[in-house]
Amino acid sequence: MSRIDRASRVIAVPPPAVYGALLDRAALEAWLPPEGMRGRIDRWDPRPGGGFRMVLTYLDPVGDPGKTSDGTDVVEVGFAELVPQESVVQTAVFEADDPSYAGTMTMTWRLEAVDGGTEVTVTATGVPPGIDQAAHEVGIASSLANLAAYLTTSSPGARRKPWPRR
């Protein structure tokens, strides 16, 4: 069976707010980098077939040497599928000389309206073998926590309730 890395979290905002944060350049730069990293988007084209290039920098590169260079991971992300308020499917390719980080990883962000907000489930398939599964799942969970914090403190409609469930 092929490897699947996954994390999920309920975020106290409606699906349109979450979906918007998945397709907003400034928002992604703020919440996508997991704990211990910061991110910068160099190229941005938010449409199916478009994508972005993100440079992730380790705040303390001593213990985390980076995939692209000491202290950095550079990833080319493509938008494979966008279904408003429901899902975003991305392809991700790391810039790395080490073949254990080669290949195209697929990240699927599914949004489901639930009591109290939106359940966001992230599923990664085709994960390069050089990426430790436990560490990757912790990183995804960290990004989801950042997303929750970003949306519940910055979204103008974040506290509006109730919103429709599906």
Automatic annotation (TrEMBL):
Coiled coil: none annotated. Residues 13-151 form the Activator of Hsp90 ATPase homologue 1/2-like C-terminal domain. It comes from the Bacteria. Transmembrane segments: none annotated. Belongs to the AHA1 family. This is Uncharacterized conserved protein YndB, AHSA1/START domain. It comes from Allokutzneria albata (Kibdelosporangium albatum).
